[in-house]
Amino acid sequence: MQVIQTRDYENLSEKVAGIIFDQLKGQPDSTLGLATGSTPVGTYQLLKKQPEHFIEATTFNLDEYVGLKESHPQSYRYFMQEKLFNTVPVKASYIPNGSATDLQEECKLYEQKIQASGGIDLQLLGLGMNGHIGFNEPGTPFDSRTHVVELAESTRQANARFFNHLDEVPTQAITMGIETIMEAKKIVLLVSGNEKVQAFDRLFRGEIEEKFPASILRTHPNITVVHDL
Ligand code: F6R
Fold first, then answer.
1. Is the pTM of this model over 0.90?
2. CA distance 65 to 212
3. Backbone phi, then psi, for 64, in 5-degree steps?
4. Ligand 1 pocket test: which of 39, 137, 172 has the largest number of ligand atoms within 8 Å of its C-beta?
């Protein structure tokens, strides 16, 4: 596990953008795994400055809420469009379809699409305060694949800041599973802000256990943690 401590959020975003540009310079047709949330936003702003690197890239997002249309401002499709894809012309961008009529089938198809693209070369991750990665909440089996999840109340509350009211936060999401994430050839975990200090400590010092999903990342052969704590 490589750990990069950065001065501040700006510096963290520069480091992560640098890692992504290096990946694409070495392998322009890379498959990138992307995250939403606040932490990667600064990175995405920097990626927008050099969109030419992305023409051959394929992207897969970690997760999507169930029940929000793509046009809903809090859907992750909308988020990614605003934060990245409106400027960065990737070859193809995949996000689970949380409005699919058959959600189980959608999960299966998503896994198949990842496999068909040759697997994820570089996966960006944020860290949930309860240790979640993607929407894999505490207790999710380490051998899980893309699946539908019931969101933890703490996660809904943390995400309520993006909605008008807690009641509007969906109760379910589709997420890549932990095993799906762990199959990425390289993982870059971004951790920023004081509220993540406890989770960050537990990541390094705690047990590797399903009660704290991110703990499994310690066993990944090629992971870089970039933080500003
Ligand atoms: C986002 C995702 C989540 C976030 C995590 C941290 O696609 O899957 O696991 O990465 O909740 O969110 P922020 O960056 O907002 O602290």
1. yes
2. 21
3. -155, 145
4. 39
